[in-house]
Design goal:
Elements (H helix, E strand, L loop, with lengths): L7 H13 L4 H8 L3 H13 L12 H8 L16 H8 L6 H11 L6 H12 L15 E6 L4 E4 L6 E11 L5 E6 L4 H15 L5 E4 L6 E3 L6 E2 L1 H10 L2 E2 L11 H15 L10 H19 L9
Parallel strand pairs: 1-5, 5-8
Antiparallel strand pairs: 1-3, 2-3, 3-4, 6-7
Helix pairs in contact: 1-2, 1-3, 2-3, 3-7
């Protein structure tokens, strides 16, 4: 099967994440929304061309493509022995067994069988059909989940008396449940990026992976299989050295952590402030900071320390 061709911008991101941040092929695949076999292929091409990160100075998009695609792809034979997916899945449950080891064993029995990238792709597609319910385990400093709460808090114009809801941004660390929240006027890209910066400052560091929902400020194309980040959001990720992996459409488990944070913010902030009248964002955010301090110090039964 021919390698999936992606945009040059996404190729650069694959190279950045692998060579610049030492991310695994799996995480790069999730962040860039391309098959893991495609990630592996581009990494091999980059290594063969002597390309790492940062990219060589003066290397434009056309030159990069030329360096990566100088040789034709290999032809596949028309008939190949299909791998036994259930057997592969069972074997992978054993300690020390990897997909690469199983592929080597497969090729020994089927010399004309699928190459490694296609073998992995076939197993990956098969495994997506499984209905697995796995408890999410989070490593300290690994993931930060971000979203806007569904219900805002009203700010009243002191001159006219008109009230307008402010949007409530929520960020939560996967390992400790340490939570950040801030009110803004709108859900636009500049606000979205500023809120991330404020969350990183509040947490005292940048998580390896940032997981947003598919809102317009973050994702151009909210597709279940291939979401595409907005250029501004992508530039922010490169600046902070984090990986953006949007939650998949119609995959509620991807968003369970941030939805928990939204629920906590609703209970500990929105509900508590329901009878208050605010006349400015500054006034509202000062009150939110007070309530966050109380919650993150253990007042809600959460872990009272930060996880970096």
């Amino acid at each position: 099967m021919a390698t999936e061709r992606v945009t040059v911008r996404k190729i650069k991101e694959i190279i950045r994440l692998h060579f610049g941040l030492n991310m695994s092929d799996r995480k790069v695949s999730q962040s860039c929304s391309v098959a893991r076999s495609t990630v592996a292929d581009y990494i091999l091409r980059a290594e063969a061309a002597g390309i790492g990160w940062p990219l060589p100075e003066g290397l434009d998009d056309a030159s990069l493509e030329a360096k990566l695609f100088t040789s034709p792809g290999r032809k596949q034979t028309s008939e190949k022995m299909m791998p036994q997916m259930e057997a592969i899945h069972k074997e992978l449950g054993q300690k020390g067994v990897t997909l690469q080891l199983l592929w080597i064993e497969y090729k020994q029995s089927n010399p004309d069988g699928f190459q490694y990238s296609r073998y992995c792709e076939l197993y990956s597609k098969w495994s997506e059909t499984l209905d697995l319910s796995l408890r999410q385990e989070y490593r300290a400093g690994e993931k930060m989940f971000v979203d806007f709460a569904g219900k805002g808090i009203a700010i009243t114009n002191p001159a006219t008396g008109e009230a307008k809801d402010a949007e409530i941004f929520v960020a939560i660390l996967g390992a400790s449940n340490y939570t950040f929240a801030e009110a803004v006027e709108r859900q636009d890209l500049p606000s979205w990026i500023d809120l991330h910066s404020n969350a990183y400052e509040y947490f005292g560091g940048v998580a390896e992976i940032t997981i947003p929902d598919n809102l317009k400020a973050a994702v151009i194309k909210p597709c279940r299989y291939e979401p595409d980040l907005t250029p501004g959001y992508q530039a922010m990720a490169e600046h902070y050295g984090t990986v953006i992996i949007p939650a998949r459409v119609r995959k509620p488990k991807d968003k369970a952590k941030v939805e928990t944070a939204v629920l906590l913010v609703t209970r500990w902030i929105t509900a508590v402030l329901r009878h208050h009248t605010f006349f400015s964002l500054t006034e509202l955010n000062n009150k939110i900071k007070e309530l966050l301090k109380r919650r993150n110090s253990g007042g809600s039964g959460s872990v009272p320390h930060r996880a970096h």
